[in-house]
User: Fold this.
Amino acid sequence: MESEDFEINLGNSFTDIRKSSQEDFIEFWDNQANSLTWFKHWDNTLNWNPPFAKWFEGGLINASYNTLDIHQKDKSSKIAIFWEGEDESQRTLSYSQLFSEVKKFSNILKSLGVKKGDRVTIYLPMIPEIIISMLGCARIGAIHTVVFSGFSSSSLKDRIEDSKSKIVITADGGFRKGKIIKLKDIVDDAVSEANSVEHVIVFERIKNGITLNEKDHLWSELMENASDDCDAEQLESTHPLYILYTSGTTGKPKGVLHGTGGYLTHLHSTYKWAFDIKDSDIYFCTADIGWVTGHSYVAYGPLLHGATQIMYEGAPDFPDISRMWNIIQKYNVTIFYTTPTALRMFMKFGDDIPNSFNLSTLRLLGTVGEPINPEVWKWYFNIIGKKHCPIIDTWWQTETGGMMISSLPGIESNILKPGSATKPIPGVSISVIDDDGNDVDSGTKGSLIIKNPWPGMLMTLWGDDEKYKNVYWSKFENMYYPGDYAIRDSDGYFWLLGRSDDVLKIAGHRIGTAELESSLVSNDNVAESAVCGIPDEIKGESIIAFVVLKDGVEYSNEKLNDILKDTVRNSVGAIAIPKEFYFVSKLPKTRSGKIMRRLLKAIANKEKIGDVSTLEDGAAVTEVQSAFEELQKSVNASDR
Ligand code: WTA
Assistant:
């Protein structure tokens, strides 16, 4: 198929947007910010004290006001959320109902002593209460920190402790593939060790009977008596909206801190440009709110625009692989935003399943979170979009707050290239550079970098300005380093090639190797461990763990597999469980003690190591070769 076949023009041609963004990015974003409702206009568009940015300094704004209050005149009866439970139960919330619930919840938080700037941990499944909690916090200036409900009690405890949250909001349980996940039990474990927590609010989703502890309150009882009269606080544009923990290259997850005015400006603009959002659209993003896509393009982006969206509670393949197509048909979905992992899984089951549903209401498709293989992209285009829906492949990160590279059908038509995220959004400047910081030629692989500050950017890492500087701004002077490899082709299109650091992307979720290694080493049987990713047909990557056992450990490999899987499940969460374990006598290391990771990868992928001279810094060729042979021998022995 010719690449021209992938151009779909939605009739938008706002060329002045790109043009003005190229003249002066600060003035450009200044104009964009006028789309929001401010209590007080800002004094200074950008205060840039590298690498700390203060966007719209002096301005007063509120995220809850911009997602709810502003719609009460024209859209109060419009549906904000069509919620579909995994068990097919349904709920709908209009903009006025959502407004009233949020105000009540803000009052509850206040009555429990929550003040502006206090942290509130939210550990909920995909139910409307997760959005009500977030907006309830935002309304009074409390900082929400949502923890994905698939994380273990120990991960939850670490995040509660790091953020020193006063309140935890949870549910009795959640549904996942028909099973009940007892969230309250996990919270009980975490809270018993986290001293900062004063109150726990429990929403009854499963209604299977729970024991309430001293700090616990039932959501329903609190709401019954709460008033729905609560004005939105007028907050500084730079007031923190939320902390979202994400994995990096160190053992401890980083608390990415986002502000209010800049973040909302970025979301308002990108949501409009990328999704070409119309009042009549039914938007469906499959991301869990526990991750950044759910924060930006489920909780905030659609509501800023008064859009109607579908929120789905459970697994995308429950009770069977047709669930997503079923939902699209049932609710007449017009915009569908999902992940390459989900698409690879759907594609595996063939065309007949989606073809047996009426998907004709779809008009725009999107993907996020990991590179999409060109053949999967084409399948999405042909089979799901029936060749009439543009695809947006959106590259961004927890740290960027919103989309940074994407085709933007809402402002212009682009020729789409399957597998390329296309071009940077207006107002951001992105390049590919070599290790010396020079732009590489088109077609050459290098590090992706962002040259100027942008409004959705993180403000810092919670409680750790130094780490913020070191992780993102020290590799290349005054440039933001996202940790991705990329190529820019001769047409200026960006092709993302995955992470250049020790971060794994499993089913689109970020897992730090160091975090996983410290989890494995926490098991009494383990002396040392190193993990790496190998390509996986569905999940993009899966995890292989190399483990050195302590002397005298005498279990069978099979039993050890189970023990170590449990360790990871309990300390990080089920998403991080390695697919395979190799029990080896020692890990290959350079003389300075650095693990030779590429060597591990070669073994895990059952490849030869090729030219070892370029493999690792500081290791002699013979050293690498003998380490490789030794490791191979020990892996073979462990296979037997
Ligand atoms: C990867 C998810 C290729 C990338 C929104 C980035 C992508 C990391 C894409 C951030 C894409 C995200 N194509 N790779 N369209 N989108 N990534 O913080 O490696 O969970 O650095 O944010 O996902 O993951 P995070």
About this structure: The mean pLDDT is 93.
